[in-house]
Amino acid sequence: MSVLATTQHTSLATVPAIYRAYQYASFSTPTSELTLRKDVPLTPLEPNQLRIKVHSAALNPADQKIMQDFGLAVTGRQPSAGNPFGMGFDVAGTVIDTGANAHQFKVGDAVFAMAPYSNFGTFAEFVAIDEQFVALKPSNITFEEAASIPYTALTSYQALHEHANLKSGERVLILGGSTSTGMAAIQLARAMGAHVIATARGCQDFLLVQSLGTEKVIDVSKQNWVDAVDEHSVDVVYDCGVERKAWNRDAQTVLKKDSGRFVTINPMLQPRAAKFGAKCIGEIMVHAS
After folding, report:
1. pLDDT by residue for the chain (289 residues), tens digit each?
2. How far apart are CA 176 and CA 218, in angstroms?
3. I need a surface site. Which of 134, 251, 277, 283 has the fewest CB within 10 A?
4. CATH pick for 151-283 out of 3.30.200.20, 3.30.70.260, 3.40.50.720, 3.30.70.920
5. Could you give phi then psi for residue 250, rounded to 5 degrees?
6. Which residues fall within 8 angstroms of residue 83, CB to CB, at 6 or more apart?
7. How far apart are alpha carbons 231 and 254 in whole angstroms?
8. What does the DSSP 8-state code read for residue 160?
Protein backbone atom coordinates (compact mmCIF):
# COMPACT_ATOMS: atom_id res chain seq x y z
CA MET A 1 0.00 0.00 0.00
CA SER A 2 1.32 3.42 -0.89
CA VAL A 3 1.89 5.82 1.97
CA LEU A 4 2.60 9.49 2.42
CA ALA A 5 5.30 10.36 4.91
CA THR A 6 4.16 12.92 7.47
CA THR A 7 6.05 16.06 8.32
CA GLN A 8 9.26 15.92 10.29
CA HIS A 9 7.25 17.41 13.16
CA THR A 10 5.77 13.93 13.75
CA SER A 11 8.97 11.91 13.63
CA LEU A 12 8.74 8.74 11.50
CA ALA A 13 4.98 8.20 11.46
CA THR A 14 3.35 7.39 8.12
CA VAL A 15 -0.21 7.55 6.87
CA PRO A 16 -1.85 6.27 3.67
CA ALA A 17 -1.65 8.43 0.56
CA ILE A 18 -5.35 7.84 -0.10
CA TYR A 19 -8.25 7.20 2.23
CA ARG A 20 -11.99 6.51 2.29
CA ALA A 21 -14.62 9.18 2.85
CA TYR A 22 -18.32 9.76 2.26
CA GLN A 23 -18.80 12.58 -0.25
CA TYR A 24 -21.39 14.06 -2.60
CA ALA A 25 -21.04 15.98 -5.86
CA SER A 26 -24.40 17.77 -5.91
CA PHE A 27 -27.05 18.93 -3.46
CA SER A 28 -29.57 16.12 -3.08
CA THR A 29 -30.75 13.47 -0.62
CA PRO A 30 -28.20 11.24 1.12
CA THR A 31 -29.76 8.09 -0.33
CA SER A 32 -29.43 9.32 -3.90
CA GLU A 33 -26.12 11.17 -3.87
CA LEU A 34 -23.92 10.27 -0.88
CA THR A 35 -21.12 7.94 -1.99
CA LEU A 36 -18.28 6.16 -0.23
CA ARG A 37 -15.16 7.11 -2.13
CA LYS A 38 -12.10 4.92 -1.65
CA ASP A 39 -9.54 7.07 -3.44
CA VAL A 40 -9.57 10.45 -1.69
CA PRO A 41 -6.03 11.89 -1.81
CA LEU A 42 -4.42 12.90 1.46
CA THR A 43 -3.41 16.55 1.10
CA PRO A 44 -0.59 18.28 3.00
CA LEU A 45 -1.51 19.91 6.29
CA GLU A 46 -1.84 23.66 6.59
CA PRO A 47 0.43 25.18 9.29
CA ASN A 48 -2.22 25.26 12.05
CA GLN A 49 -3.96 22.00 11.24
CA LEU A 50 -3.99 18.62 12.94
CA ARG A 51 -4.50 15.37 11.10
CA ILE A 52 -6.84 13.14 13.07
CA LYS A 53 -7.42 9.43 12.59
CA VAL A 54 -11.18 9.14 12.97
CA HIS A 55 -12.52 6.70 15.54
CA SER A 56 -16.08 8.05 15.68
CA ALA A 57 -18.18 10.65 13.88
CA ALA A 58 -21.70 11.82 14.68
CA LEU A 59 -24.69 12.50 12.46
CA ASN A 60 -26.61 15.74 12.96
CA PRO A 61 -29.78 17.10 11.33
CA ALA A 62 -27.56 19.87 9.94
CA ASP A 63 -25.75 17.33 7.76
CA GLN A 64 -28.90 16.50 5.84
CA LYS A 65 -30.10 20.11 5.78
CA ILE A 66 -26.84 21.29 4.22
CA MET A 67 -26.92 18.49 1.66
CA GLN A 68 -30.54 19.14 0.71
CA ASP A 69 -31.58 22.71 1.49
CA PHE A 70 -29.11 25.15 2.99
CA GLY A 71 -25.72 24.13 1.64
CA LEU A 72 -25.19 27.04 -0.72
CA ALA A 73 -26.43 29.61 1.78
CA VAL A 74 -24.25 28.23 4.57
CA THR A 75 -21.04 27.58 2.66
CA GLY A 76 -21.25 29.90 -0.33
CA ARG A 77 -20.06 26.98 -2.44
CA GLN A 78 -21.53 24.36 -4.75
CA PRO A 79 -20.29 20.74 -4.71
CA SER A 80 -19.14 19.19 -7.97
CA ALA A 81 -17.49 16.02 -9.25
CA GLY A 82 -14.13 17.74 -9.16
CA ASN A 83 -14.72 19.37 -5.78
CA PRO A 84 -17.19 17.24 -3.81
CA PHE A 85 -18.43 18.00 -0.32
CA GLY A 86 -17.77 15.74 2.62
CA MET A 87 -20.39 14.81 5.20
CA GLY A 88 -20.21 15.40 8.94
CA PHE A 89 -19.05 18.00 11.47
CA ASP A 90 -18.44 16.04 14.68
CA VAL A 91 -15.42 13.82 15.15
CA ALA A 92 -13.37 12.06 17.80
CA GLY A 93 -10.07 10.36 17.20
CA THR A 94 -6.31 10.39 17.61
CA VAL A 95 -3.85 13.03 16.40
CA ILE A 96 -1.42 11.43 13.93
CA ASP A 97 0.19 14.55 12.47
CA THR A 98 0.57 18.24 13.28
CA GLY A 99 1.18 21.27 11.10
CA ALA A 100 4.32 23.35 11.45
CA ASN A 101 2.62 25.97 13.63
CA ALA A 102 0.28 23.67 15.56
CA HIS A 103 1.64 23.42 19.09
CA GLN A 104 -1.37 22.82 21.35
CA PHE A 105 -1.53 19.07 20.72
CA LYS A 106 0.90 16.26 20.07
CA VAL A 107 0.82 13.05 18.08
CA GLY A 108 -1.06 10.40 20.03
CA ASP A 109 -3.45 12.79 21.78
CA ALA A 110 -7.07 11.62 21.96
CA VAL A 111 -9.21 14.55 20.83
CA PHE A 112 -12.66 15.60 19.69
CA ALA A 113 -13.71 18.46 17.47
CA MET A 114 -16.32 20.23 15.40
CA ALA A 115 -15.17 20.96 11.87
CA PRO A 116 -15.97 24.47 10.58
CA TYR A 117 -18.40 25.11 7.72
CA SER A 118 -15.45 25.83 5.45
CA ASN A 119 -13.90 22.40 5.98
CA PHE A 120 -16.42 19.78 7.10
CA GLY A 121 -16.36 16.09 6.20
CA THR A 122 -15.78 13.93 9.27
CA PHE A 123 -17.34 10.78 7.78
CA ALA A 124 -13.88 9.72 6.71
CA GLU A 125 -10.88 7.73 7.84
CA PHE A 126 -8.84 10.91 8.35
CA VAL A 127 -9.65 14.60 8.76
CA ALA A 128 -7.51 17.73 8.83
CA ILE A 129 -8.82 20.43 11.20
CA ASP A 130 -7.37 23.69 12.49
CA GLU A 131 -6.30 23.12 16.09
CA GLN A 132 -8.45 26.03 17.33
CA PHE A 133 -11.51 23.80 16.76
CA VAL A 134 -10.07 20.81 18.65
CA ALA A 135 -10.12 19.82 22.34
CA LEU A 136 -8.61 16.97 24.33
CA LYS A 137 -11.04 14.11 24.87
CA PRO A 138 -11.80 13.60 28.57
CA SER A 139 -10.44 10.25 29.70
CA ASN A 140 -13.73 9.22 31.31
CA ILE A 141 -15.76 9.19 28.07
CA THR A 142 -15.49 6.99 24.99
CA PHE A 143 -14.71 8.17 21.47
CA GLU A 144 -18.35 7.50 20.57
CA GLU A 145 -19.57 9.68 23.43
CA ALA A 146 -17.07 12.42 22.61
CA ALA A 147 -18.15 12.54 18.97
CA SER A 148 -21.75 13.13 20.02
CA ILE A 149 -20.92 16.32 21.92
CA PRO A 150 -19.46 19.15 19.80
CA TYR A 151 -22.21 20.31 17.43
CA THR A 152 -25.13 19.91 19.79
CA ALA A 153 -23.34 21.20 22.88
CA LEU A 154 -21.88 24.21 21.06
CA THR A 155 -25.28 24.99 19.57
CA SER A 156 -26.93 25.06 22.97
CA TYR A 157 -24.03 26.82 24.69
CA GLN A 158 -24.02 29.58 22.12
CA ALA A 159 -27.82 29.85 22.22
CA LEU A 160 -28.04 30.12 26.00
CA HIS A 161 -24.80 31.91 26.87
CA GLU A 162 -23.83 34.03 23.89
CA HIS A 163 -27.27 34.89 22.50
CA ALA A 164 -29.78 34.65 25.35
CA ASN A 165 -27.24 35.65 28.03
CA LEU A 166 -28.79 33.24 30.52
CA LYS A 167 -27.87 34.11 34.12
CA SER A 168 -27.72 32.15 37.35
CA GLY A 169 -31.10 32.16 39.07
CA GLU A 170 -33.07 32.77 35.88
CA ARG A 171 -35.75 30.41 34.59
CA VAL A 172 -35.40 28.83 31.16
CA LEU A 173 -37.98 26.86 29.20
CA ILE A 174 -36.39 24.38 26.79
CA LEU A 175 -38.71 23.23 24.02
CA GLY A 176 -37.63 19.77 22.92
CA GLY A 177 -35.78 18.58 25.99
CA SER A 178 -35.22 15.06 24.63
CA THR A 179 -33.53 16.24 21.42
CA SER A 180 -29.74 16.18 21.28
CA THR A 181 -29.54 19.96 21.60
CA GLY A 182 -32.20 19.89 24.29
CA MET A 183 -30.36 17.37 26.45
CA ALA A 184 -27.19 19.44 26.13
CA ALA A 185 -29.13 22.61 26.95
CA ILE A 186 -30.61 21.15 30.12
CA GLN A 187 -27.20 20.22 31.48
CA LEU A 188 -25.59 23.49 30.42
CA ALA A 189 -28.40 25.58 31.89
CA ARG A 190 -28.13 23.74 35.20
CA ALA A 191 -24.37 24.30 35.21
CA MET A 192 -25.07 28.02 34.68
CA GLY A 193 -27.25 28.00 37.79
CA ALA A 194 -30.57 28.40 35.97
CA HIS A 195 -33.93 26.85 36.87
CA VAL A 196 -34.90 24.49 34.05
CA ILE A 197 -38.31 23.61 32.63
CA ALA A 198 -38.35 21.37 29.56
CA THR A 199 -40.85 19.70 27.27
CA ALA A 200 -40.91 16.05 26.23
CA ARG A 201 -43.30 13.87 24.26
CA GLY A 202 -44.38 10.54 25.73
CA CYS A 203 -43.37 8.55 28.78
CA GLN A 204 -39.94 7.45 27.59
CA ASP A 205 -38.80 10.95 26.67
CA PHE A 206 -40.37 12.34 29.85
CA LEU A 207 -38.28 10.02 32.01
CA LEU A 208 -35.14 10.79 29.99
CA VAL A 209 -35.56 14.55 30.41
CA GLN A 210 -36.42 14.12 34.07
CA SER A 211 -33.25 12.08 34.64
CA LEU A 212 -31.13 15.06 33.56
CA GLY A 213 -32.19 17.06 36.61
CA THR A 214 -34.91 19.17 35.05
CA GLU A 215 -37.00 20.87 37.73
CA LYS A 216 -40.21 20.52 35.74
CA VAL A 217 -40.98 18.34 32.71
CA ILE A 218 -44.08 18.94 30.58
CA ASP A 219 -45.37 16.01 28.54
CA VAL A 220 -46.73 17.75 25.44
CA SER A 221 -48.56 14.59 24.39
CA LYS A 222 -50.89 15.28 27.32
CA GLN A 223 -51.05 19.08 27.55
CA ASN A 224 -49.88 22.23 25.84
CA TRP A 225 -46.78 23.60 27.50
CA VAL A 226 -48.22 27.11 27.60
CA ASP A 227 -50.96 25.81 29.93
CA ALA A 228 -48.38 24.37 32.33
CA VAL A 229 -46.26 27.52 32.72
CA ASP A 230 -47.32 30.68 34.54
CA GLU A 231 -47.74 33.76 32.39
CA HIS A 232 -44.68 36.01 32.15
CA SER A 233 -42.64 33.79 34.48
CA VAL A 234 -39.82 32.66 32.18
CA ASP A 235 -36.62 34.58 31.41
CA VAL A 236 -35.56 32.56 28.36
CA VAL A 237 -37.38 30.28 25.94
CA TYR A 238 -35.03 28.11 23.88
CA ASP A 239 -36.62 26.22 20.99
CA CYS A 240 -34.53 23.22 19.98
CA GLY A 241 -36.13 23.00 16.57
CA VAL A 242 -39.47 21.48 17.58
CA GLU A 243 -41.73 24.56 17.73
CA ARG A 244 -41.39 26.53 14.50
CA LYS A 245 -44.21 28.91 15.43
CA ALA A 246 -43.45 29.16 19.15
CA TRP A 247 -42.54 32.86 19.16
CA ASN A 248 -45.60 34.02 17.27
CA ARG A 249 -47.88 31.82 19.35
CA ASP A 250 -47.17 30.94 22.97
CA ALA A 251 -43.63 32.02 23.85
CA GLN A 252 -44.70 35.62 24.34
CA THR A 253 -47.30 34.46 26.85
CA VAL A 254 -44.77 32.85 29.20
CA LEU A 255 -41.81 35.21 28.74
CA LYS A 256 -41.26 37.98 31.27
CA LYS A 257 -42.26 41.44 30.19
CA ASP A 258 -39.41 43.62 28.89
CA SER A 259 -36.62 41.22 29.91
CA GLY A 260 -37.73 37.89 28.35
CA ARG A 261 -35.62 36.44 25.51
CA PHE A 262 -36.49 33.90 22.82
CA VAL A 263 -33.91 31.96 20.81
CA THR A 264 -34.34 29.10 18.36
CA ILE A 265 -32.37 26.91 15.98
CA ASN A 266 -35.29 27.04 13.53
CA PRO A 267 -35.37 29.47 10.61
CA MET A 268 -37.98 32.07 11.55
CA LEU A 269 -40.62 33.29 9.12
CA GLN A 270 -42.06 36.75 9.75
CA PRO A 271 -41.62 36.99 13.53
CA ARG A 272 -44.05 39.41 15.14
CA ALA A 273 -42.88 42.06 17.60
CA ALA A 274 -43.82 41.45 21.23
CA LYS A 275 -46.35 43.92 22.58
CA PHE A 276 -44.77 43.91 26.03
CA GLY A 277 -41.08 44.16 25.13
CA ALA A 278 -39.75 40.60 25.22
CA LYS A 279 -36.83 40.16 22.86
CA CYS A 280 -36.90 37.79 19.89
CA ILE A 281 -33.26 36.94 19.29
CA GLY A 282 -34.37 34.59 16.54
CA GLU A 283 -32.50 31.75 14.92
CA ILE A 284 -28.85 31.07 15.62
CA MET A 285 -26.22 29.20 13.64
CA VAL A 286 -23.54 27.40 15.59
CA HIS A 287 -19.90 28.27 14.90
CA ALA A 288 -17.00 25.92 15.54
CA SER A 289 -15.12 27.72 18.30
Report:
1. 333 333 434 433 578 899 999 999 999 998 899 999 999 999 999 999 999 999 999 999 889 888 987 888 888 889 999 999 999 999 999 999 999 999 999 999 999 999 998 899 999 999 999 999 999 999 999 999 999 999 999 999 999 999 999 999 999 999 999 999 999 999 999 999 999 999 999 999 999 999 999 999 999 999 999 999 999 999 999 999 888 889 988 999 999 999 999 999 987 666 777 777 888 887 777 766 6
2. 10
3. 277
4. 3.40.50.720
5. -105, -20
6. 77
7. 4
8. I
For 3-148, give the CATH class. Answer: alpha beta
* CATH 3.90.180.10 domain locations along the chain: 3-148
Terminal Cα-to-Cα distance of the chain (whole angstroms): 37
pTM for the whole structure = 0.86
Q: Measuring CA to CA, which residue among 68, 88, 92, 117 is closest to residue 23?
A: 88
